[in-house]
Amino acid sequence: MSLRRHGGAALDRCWLGFTLDRRSFFCRPSRYGLVLLVMLAALLVGSINHNNNLGFLLTFLLGSMMLVSLQHTLRNLRGVSAGGQAPPPVHAGQQLDCALWLRAAPPARIGLSATLDHHHHSSTDIRGNSPTIVRLPCTTSRRGLLQLDSLQLSSSYPLGLVELRTRVPLQLSCLVYPRPLATPLVTNATTRAPGWDGQLIETSSGSEVSGLSNYTPGDNLRHVAWKTLARGQGLHTRTFAEQHSPTLVFALEQLPGMDRETRISRLCHLVLAAAAGGMRYGILLPDQEIAPARGRAHRDRCLKALALQP
After folding, report:
1. Bridge partner list, 23
2. Which of 41, 106, 126, 286 is packed most tightly, with the most Cβ within 10 A?
């Protein structure tokens, strides 16, 4: 499943669009610009009625300030390029934390506002030839591969009378896992090893610690090496030489649910619970089967398969 984020249709109808250097720009007067336009209209009407040359001079002088402001605002947005690295996967409903860079040739670009989803904005300046890093959150609503095609930039520099918007091409993709939906473990959806009692529980691990690994969200809190954290060595998880746990295989089509997305969300919860419990587990999907294993890489592989389910 592929989701695509682009904002051509998201611009309001009140924006005036034009194309320059193969890039579309949209402009509209700001709140202060509207006040100035109303004042200019009143000055023009009064100058015509009273045939006042000084009134005409003041009207055209203030109007030229707005045109000059538009030219500077356009130059502030032209020539800006964007890029970045794909953010780590998140579950549907969570926010992506995208680290993007903006670059432009001199002169400096002042008062740029960047956004990915029209809900979260970040203001920044670009000075010199070195790229400027901008961190932008992006909301997610559905699982799948989220394609970020463009970044919206806007500016009202220098006088705040005219606001310009444009979209900068961006080629980023991020994997969005399904939203976990709590569900009880049912026997008819699970193939189990002999001796399993039918309950998904946290099992005890071997008494011999084989090493430490970096902590990742979802790891069993009972395995966290709190002593190393107290010594200021960071958060780590203890790994054991031997673990005794049931081997489970979750079948998607046998999980309860009124629709396919509900079953995928429930299977996502089971995968996270089994991974947190240190169990060996696998999943059975209509188009593929992932053999039982354990570990962070195996958990991510199962979640990726669920996210990309058609």
Report:
1. 20
2. 126
Please state the φ and ψ torsions of residue 185, each to the nearest 5 degrees.
-80, 125
Question: Is 283:290 a contact under the CB 8 Å cutoff?
Answer: yes
Do the Cβ atoms of 309 and 285 come closer than 8 Å?
A: yes
Q: Tokens 């005794």 correspond to what residue?
A: 244
What is the C-alpha separation between 215 and 235, in angstroms, rounded? 6
Enumerate residues 6+ apart whose C-beta is below 8 A from 74.
Answer: 20, 25, 164
Q: Nearest to residue 160, comparing CAs of 55, 36, 244, 266?
A: 36
For the chain, the average pLDDT equals 80
Residue 55's Cβ-count burial label (10 Å; 0-12, 13-18, 19+) is middle
pTM: 0.68
Write phi, then psi, for 301 (nearest 5 degrees).
-65, -40
The three-state secondary structure class of 265 is helix
Q: Which two tokens stand for residue 171?
A: 């080629």
Which tokens is 231 given?
């010594």
The letter for the amino acid at 53 is N
- Per-residue CA distances from 156 to 41, 49, 96, 153, 211 (Å): 22, 34, 27, 11, 56
